[in-house]
């Protein structure tokens, strides 16, 4: 996190000094631009197809099942924001079979139980954005978001500064959740 003094903002040509600090998050520009988003073909260009080939620590994988895995979101809304992802590269919920649907539901429940146990989440937002027009960042590979919520977790930062404040590094969150994940979801 870098807070820039107004005189430096002016030197950078960013406008008139206004005595406001700036939180810079340049790592998010790749996400905003859509860099490395997968094609509909799948394979190594798809992060959700590539992640299972990594170690759990490197891929931020919390748990692996037969048909589905749970992974931390690289761009979380809140600490503990998980994704339940089928291994099979399909874009739409109607494309997964009964066994995949069952395991996806079980992983979603296990994610909720685990995050409650580890961090005391008081509620959850759960859902899928189907297609780019519906807001899916990676529309070519189905994934379900499990976003933990707490009273007061929404403050001025996302609204005013368009910035999320996360109290824990992803590697530490992954370690805690993986250790608490039930043996059989």
Can you describe this structure in just a few lines?
With 185 residues, this protein is α+β, with helices and mostly antiparallel strands. Helices cover 31% and strands 14% of the residues. The longest helix has 22 residues, at 98-119.
Helices and strands in order:
Layout: H1 6-11, H2 29-33, H3 47-50, H4 56-59, E1 61-64, E2 68-72, E3 82-86, H5 98-119, E4 123-127, E5 144-149, H6 156-161, H7 170-180
Give structural notes.
This protein has 185 residues and is an alpha+beta fold. It folds into two domains: 1-35, no CATH class; 47-180, HIT family, subunit A (2-Layer Sandwich). The protein contains seven helices and five strands. The chain has helices at residues 6-11, 29-33, 47-50, 56-59, 98-119, 156-161, 170-180, and strands spanning 61-64, 68-72, 82-86, 123-127, 144-149. A five-stranded antiparallel beta sheet has the order 1-2-3-5-4. Strand 1 and strand 2 (68-72) form a beta hairpin. The chain is globular. The termini are far apart. Residues 1-13 have low confidence and may be disordered.
Number of spatially distinct domains: 2
**pLDDT < 50 stretches:** 1-13
Number of strands: 5
Distance between the termini: 37 Å
Percent strand equals: 5-15%
């Amino acid at each position: 996190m870098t807070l820039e003094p107004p005189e430096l903002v002016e030197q950078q040509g960013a406008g008139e000094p206004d005595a406001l600090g700036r939180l810079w998050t340049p790592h998010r520009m790749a996400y905003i631009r859509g860099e490395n988003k997968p094609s509909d073909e799948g394979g190594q260009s798809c992060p959700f197809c590539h992640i299972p080939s990594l170690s759990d620590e490197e891929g931020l994988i919390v748990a692996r099942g037969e048909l589905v895995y749970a992974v931390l979101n690289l761009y979380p809304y809140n600490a503990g924001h998980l994704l339940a992802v089928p291994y099979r590269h399909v874009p739409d919920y109607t494309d997964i079979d009964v066994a995949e649907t069952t395991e996806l539901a079980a992983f979603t429940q296990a994610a909720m139980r685990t995050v409650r146990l580890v961090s005391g989440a008081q509620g959850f937002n759960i859902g899928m954005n189907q297609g780019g027009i519906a807001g899916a960042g990676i529309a070519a590979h189905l994934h379900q978001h499990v976003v933990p919520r707490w009273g007061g977790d929404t403050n001025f930062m996302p609204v005013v500064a368009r910035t999320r404040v996360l109290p824990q590094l992803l590697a530490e969150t992954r370690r805690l959740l993986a250790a608490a994940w039930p043996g059989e979801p």
